[in-house]
Design a protein that fits this description.
It is a single chain. This protein is mainly alpha-helical. The chain is about 60% helix and about 0% strand. It is built from 7 helices and no strands. Helix 3 packs across helix 4 and helix 3 crosses helix 6. The radius of gyration is 18 Å and the shape is globular.
Length: about 140
């Protein structure tokens, strides 16, 4: 690796990778971290419902009902809002800002969000995915 990059460049990329978590409250340490973090955003409520319900089912076996899992997921996401009431974007890319703003309108309407999660819950209940998530899949 040192053949292509110097130590400073390697450290900048290391920081960018370390800082790219979407749940991060403080800004990434460098511009590359901000770009990487924002590029990893997915402001799609259907995709989020699938991922969050799978994670909740896998990691919270004490929760047994849809309402419990939805509330777990919803409260987790609300913790990710910044002081302005938005989900963080570090670069303020106009396209991402537009996607985020549309997503927030849908997500912050709790009843709408719940209906999307309920649809995903019904799908995974009917096709056996819930059992697989709980008992077999290490990662979904």
């Amino acid at each position: 690796m040192k053949k292509y990059f110097n130590d400073k460049q390697i450290n900048i990329m290391k920081e960018a990778v370390e800082d790219h978590r979407g749940s991060r409250k403080e800004p990434p340490r460098n511009l590359y971290g901000k770009i990487l973090s924002d590029s990893d955003r997915d402001f799609n409520i259907e995709v989020l419902a699938k991922r969050q319900l799978a994670t909740s089912l896998k990691n919270c076996p004490d929760l047994t009902t849809f309402d419990e899992h939805f509330e777990n997921c919803y409260q987790y996401m609300l913790k990710r809002l910044n002081h302005s009431g938005n989900f963080n974007l570090w670069t303020n890319n106009p396209s991402l800002v537009e996607q985020r703003d549309r997503f927030e309108i849908d997500y912050l309407n709790k009843e709408f969000a719940k209906s999307v999660y309920q649809k995903e819950w019904n799908r995974i209940s009917q096709d056996g995915t819930i059992d697989k998530l709980i008992n077999y899949y290490e990662d979904y």
